[in-house]
Amino acid sequence: MILIVGGAGYIGSHLNKEINKKGIETVIFDNLSYGHRDFVKWGTFERGDLGNIDDIRAVFKKYPIEAVMHFAAFTYVGESVEDPQKYYTNNVKNTLNLLQVMLEENVKYFVFSSTCATYGNPVEIPITENHPQNPINPYGKGKLMVETVLKDYSDAYGLKYASLRYFNAAGADPEGEVGELHNPETHLIPLILDVAAGRREDIKIFGTDYDTPDGTCIRDYIHVTDLAEAHILALEYLQNGGESDFFNLGNGNGFSVKEVIETAEEVTGKDIRAVEAERRAGDPPVLVGSSDKAKEKLNWKPKYDELSTIIETAWNWHKKLK
Ligand code: UFG
Q1: What is the CATH number of domain 2-170+220-249?
Q2: What is the bridge-based pairing of β-strands 218-219 and 255-256?
Q3: Ligand 1 pocket test: which of 75, 127, 257 has the largest number of ligand atoms within 8 Å of its C-beta?
Q4: Which helix (H) or strand (E) element contains residue 258?
Q5: Any ligand 1 atom below 6 A from CB of 70
Q6: Has 139 been annotated as catalytic?
Q7: Domain assignments of the chain as residue spans, ordered by start
Q8: ipTM value
C-alpha cells in the first residue's frame, strides 16, 4: 500500500487517480487545510496532521505501508517571504516528522515533491539537475533543506528517495474527475480561465519589459497527469533497486505569459482581457528545464506536452466550477 501525504490536493489527487488505475492500493493522509475531501475519489482517506507525529504513527500502524509520496507542502512563494515560519514549520519540520516515522517503521521508499524554485535565478537555460541551487525565497530554501536531509538519511539509514523537481504544474485530469482548485488562486492558467468563464474581469500581466521575445516571463508548463505518471515510474525505479536521485520534471518548452493568454483564447473561444501590470517580485524572466534525465532513467514519456492540450484539459474541468 502506498501512503499519499497531501493526496487531497492538486497534484496528489491526480497521482492518486493514476496509481489506483494501475491496481496499486493507496491511503490518503491529509489535514484538509488546503486539500479537498471530494478530490479523494480513490483509495482510503485518513484525516491527520503532519504536525502531530502520533497522527502519522497511527496511519503506519493501521496500514501495511511500503512507500510514501509526499505532496503536503505550502506553495505560495510570496507568502513564504512574508511568513517564513509557516513554510519552514510545515515544509521542513513536518517533513522530518514523516521521515522519522518512516525510519521507525522501516519504510524505505520516498518520493518527494521538490521544485525548480530550489535553483533560484537560472544561470543557464535549460536548467539541468546539475545547475547550482541558490534558492531566493523561503519556499525554495525549505525544499532544498529537505533534499539535503534526504541525501544524509539515505547515506546513514538506507532511505531510498526520488526527489522530483517540478516546473509549472498545469492542466487537469483529461477525464475531468479532478482539477486545479486553490484558495487563494495565484497561478496563471486558472486565473486566465476564470476570466474566460466570466468569474474574473481581467488577467494582470506581471511585467512586459523582461528580456524575452515579447517582454513577458517564460515558464515551462507540465501537465499534472504527466507529473503523476513520473511519480509512479520513480517509485518503480526505486523498488527495482535504482539509486536515490533528483529529477527535473518539465516540458522542455517555454511559453510566455502572452502566449498562454493567446492559446487560452483559442482553446476557450473567449476574449480574455489582459492588463499590463508591474513586475511581481521574485519572478525570474525564464524558467525552462531539461527533463532528459527523467526520460532516460525513469523512461518517462510526457503525453500531454502541447500547451493547447494542457489548457484544454484545465478548461474542461474549470468551466464546470461554480
Ligand atoms: N503571472 C501573471 N499574472 C498572474 C499570475 C501569474 O502575469 O496573475 C505570471 C507570473 O509572473 C509568471 C507566470 O505567470 O511569470 C507563471 O506564474 P505562476 O504564479 O502560475 O507560477 P510561478 O512560475 O510563479 O510558480 C511556479 C510554481 C511554484 C514554484 C515556482 C518556481 O507554482 O510552486 O514556479 O519558481 F515555486
Answers
A1: 3.40.50.720
A2: antiparallel
A3: 257
A4: helix 257-268
A5: no
A6: yes
A7: 2-170+220-249, 188-219+252-316
A8: 0.95
